[in-house]
Amino acid sequence: MIIRNITDQIKVTRALVGTTTATSQQDGVTFDMAADGGYDGIIFFGNGITTANAGNFVRVEQGNQSNLSDAATIAGSRATAVANGDYLQINLPKVQKRYVRINVFRAGATTATTDMYAVQYRAGGPMPSVQNGTNPIITKLAPGYVEGTP
Length: 150
Description:
Blueprint: E1 10-16, E2 26-27, E3 31-32, E4 41-46, E5 56-63, E6 72-73, E7 88-92, E8 99-106, E9 116-121, E10 139-141
Parallel strand pairs: 7-10
Antiparallel strand pairs: 1-9, 2-8, 3-8, 4-7, 4-9, 5-6, 5-8
């Protein structure tokens, strides 16, 4: 019998470094979903935004270019904090394009951002033996993966 450990199926990485107060859009780290033998999905989580406001939200973009010059927002991936300090989680169980990143959109109020993290995961099979570890979540499942308005 093969005993599998969850840490063999995931990779945890900081996806966004928090910034001081601003109103500009902030792009996170670009993740290559084909790296390390390939990942099926990715979960982004953390506070992200310190000030709850309808114009401040987190969303996910995807594309085929490593610099995401072809980035398109994944429809249904938008998560907005209801109260200051809410944890947000966006789960993409089956990524369609090779590269993805988290994007913080600050248009409603001057807002600071906090660190956010990503868990890349494989639905089955072993993962590479060397992994980076980190910490932990309102949940948003982006079911359709149609590019368009978040």
